Amino acid sequence: MRTQLRTIKGIIKEQIAGGLYTCQQKLPSERELSELFQTTRIILKDALIGLETEGLIYREERRGWFVSPPRLKYNPLSRSHFHRMVAEQQRQASTRVLDIKTELASSDVAKVLELKSLQSIHRIQRLRSVDNRVVLFVENCLITTLFPGLLQHDLSQSLTSLYKEHYGYHTVHSHFDVIPTAAPEHVAKALNLAEGQQILKICRVNYNQNGLLMDCEFEYWRPDAVMIRIDSNEH
Amino acid sequence: MRTQLRTIKGIIKEQIAGGLYTCQQKLPSERELSELFQTTRIILKDALIGLETEGLIYREERRGWFVSPPRLKYNPLSRSHFHRMVAEQQRQASTRVLDIKTELASSDVAKVLELKSLQSIHRIQRLRSVDNRVVLFVENCLITTLFPGLLQHDLSQSLTSLYKEHYGYHTVHSHFDVIPTAAPEHVAKALNLAEGQQILKICRVNYNQNGLLMDCEFEYWRPDAVMIRIDSNEH
DNA sequence: AAGTGGTCTAGACCACCCC
DNA sequence: GGGTGGTCTAGACCACTTC
Fold first, then answer.
1. In the β-sheet with B198-208, what is the strand arrangement from edge to edge?
2. Does B184 touch chain A if contact means CB atoms closer than 8 Å?
3. Cross-chain residue pair A198–B180, CB shorter than 8 Å
4. How far is A89 from chain B (nearest CA, A)?
5. What class does CATH assign to B72-234?
6. So where are chain B's domains?
7. What are the CA-CA distances from residue B63 to residues A8, A43, B37, B182 (Å)?
8. Which CATH class is domain A2-67?
9. Does pTM top 0.90 for this prediction?
10. What pLDDT digit, counting tens, does each position of B31-67 carry?
């Protein structure tokens, strides 16, 4: 019988659907499962990776495999704050600031921000959780000249409202890209992923009411945690 | 040395970036590469899968591994025809009709189309290629009552223009979801993927000028072939 | 018929997490 | 220090594509 993989996936899937495991619950270890199914760890792992690809389960590096909660619905066009959006879906959000620095723009960032060369930017890295599960790594790069004294403010809150209250800016135009790709090293580490695991990358650029390019944002989502939902009426 | 994986990925990556392999060119076989790098096929395959996840290479089931061309930029909000969009990016598009039938809506489809129960739909499956590479499987489900005599028309062309010319409908409102997930069996087969490989699923629903729900569309993209690009000004 | 990737076996050590 | 997943070895047969 050369369809073990399929069978194993099917059985675990049924068990999850049937409620044997609940959201965010840990599955038995790979070794345990491979004994249960009388197969090797490699094949069992392939089965788990298959379910991970579907978005049914996820892993935390060296901690184990867990059942995925329902996907968050996310509209990158709406300027809603992360915390509000999550609350509207009856989930609980939290944010942790990882790092803030002012530095020279890397070539990637310079290109996105249309900077000439060797200009400095503010770089803010934050980690966001839904129901105590880390699902999103965000990096904001702000053009320094537009945000004097930025580092003195509380950056654990919404950047959108900070822009408005302290600088009088609001975003009137933005564009963004959604790209399925692999997690770069620093992202993988922050999200507790194995290096090179699949993530959903969203790259966006914001312009203020004067048409000035203000900042860009790189979002890296755990791919099972989110779905993009856009309605052509809602903007 | 326990970082072979990384090393192998790094080397192949450089070779691709350096132009040793060109777009859509086949890499040497897994066996050949594993000998070259003096490792097992399993590890070598893991390295290739890593590059696949990044979107640098792709595979065709049992045919081999190939270098990915640049991603197509795709805006699901714009009503542009597939062929026009591809042409605008200096690429070549083609479409093949796989199957057309009229049948009872499955429960999934009935839900999306807000059908009561046991209503019939027209189901059209098509396969789309860019530069002779199959990258997209599309399934359209149309509400039968709105499209009398549909099956008599040429369905290899754009559905949007068919709606307009033969039925006087145009889409004034739509919404869609973007979901990273695994390819269902029939999609995997059509796209030449191994079952359960990663794809990007886009699920959209269209309403006509009278506010009536007309049809829905399920798109399944090879994930390395596309990036979603949306501009808040462009609609 | 030969070659490809897909699946599979039966082990092993390593890096890191948690207790 | 015991348990977890991550990486790794050295093979094998199978299903399918290509010639």
1. A72-74, A226-231, B171-182, B198-208, B213-221, B133-143, B120-130, B93-104
2. no
3. yes
4. 16
5. alpha beta
6. 2-67, 72-234
7. 26, 22, 21, 20
8. mainly alpha
9. yes
10. 999 999 999 999 999 999 999 999 999 999 999 999 9
